[in-house]
Design goal:
Blueprint: H1 7-21, H2 26-37, H3 42-47, H4 49-67, H5 71-110
Helix pairs in contact: 1-2
């Protein structure tokens, strides 16, 4: 992703784009697919008037739905979000561990093992 060099933010952006690509809005699916394929940068996508209009329309719909929820629905949604966040944090940790393990393993394959000099 061209917007960030921070691994956590890049992962978060990728997941958001994957969600948009699978979502109901055809304009957002188009935008997310183009960014994920590398045909469009994230910066281009998020500054394009058509795409930002679609993003803001979706955000307004979510806000309206949130305003109509009862306090028990808000509490339930908060609990579901907390569980989802814990799961996502675990997935992030697993992904980080796999990446670190791959880095360690690729480094050991690239570096030749030192052998004792038979002449000493």
């Amino acid at each position: 992703m061209d917007v960030t060099h921070d691994a956590n933010r890049a992962r978060s952006l990728r997941r958001a784009l994957e969600s948009l690509r699978a979502g109901p809005d055809p304009k957002l699916r188009e935008m997310a697919s183009a960014v994920l394929r590398g045909e469009l940068t994230a910066q281009q996508a998020f500054t394009d008037p058509e795409y930002t209009s679609a993003l803001f329309a979706g955000a307004a719909e979510v806000r309206r739905a949130g305003e109509q929820r009862s306090s028990s629905e808000v509490d339930e949604a908060g609990a579901r979000f907390a569980a989802w966040q814990r799961q996502r944090d675990g997935e992030d940790e697993d992904e980080d561990e796999r990446a670190e393990s791959a880095r360690r393993n690729s480094g050991s394959r690239l570096m030749p093992k030192h052998r004792a000099d038979p002449g000493t």
